[in-house]
Amino acid sequence: MIKQLAIATAMLSLLAACASEPTVQTGEDAEVVMGNLHKVDNSRTDLAYVDPGADFGKYNHVLIQPLGVDNVEIKQPNSSYSAVGNKNWELTDKDKENLQAAFMESMTKQMDKCGYPVVAEAGDDVLQIAAMITGLAPSAAKDDNSSRAVGRTRVYTEGAGAMAVAIAFGDSETGEVLALVKDSRSSSSAGYWGLNNSVSNMADIRRFFNSWATQICKSLDRAHGKS
Predict the structure, then answer these.
(1) Which residues lie closer than 8 Å to 35 by C-beta, 6 or more apart?
(2) CA 85 distance to own-chain centroid
(3) Rounded-to-integer distance, Cα 125 and Cα 224, Å
């Protein structure tokens, strides 16, 4: 059990705050959800839970579920750029398809690169990763003809905005959830202003996905004793 706890902690160690290492709560006072997931203190993510008995070191492949995009809370942009008809920012079916494709591409490329190939079927060494977007906070009105004010061709913002996700890690054969992470990213943290359009916004979104994929990869490396 001590060894498994160490491996479980290592899985989330790359998410730790800079000042201290992550600590999995144990004992009677531990905050537990879903029956087996214990809260992780000192996490760099907004929230993290892990099964203290999970052996993440056994997983050498990953199975990526399609990105969940059907329950996204959208915070409308507080912008000086008036929208035609005061149209709200919404996700279309095409937007959802683009987000799912970008997520799958980022995850597949990064996992393959760091030695945890993406597979299509469950297996005893396959970790299942299921992510969903829980919130979006666009920084400007949507880049389409019905949302931006007539005659305004260039909009400048501190990136695309912000995105929040929830990511569940589970055993692909049993379906048991072994860890749950909730986190967010904001393009304004980069501190630069630039042209806001559909192309630049998708580039920011890909950077968000790549960042999460890189953290997952490094956490798996730690669980395998590679770093």
Answers:
(1) none
(2) 33
(3) 12
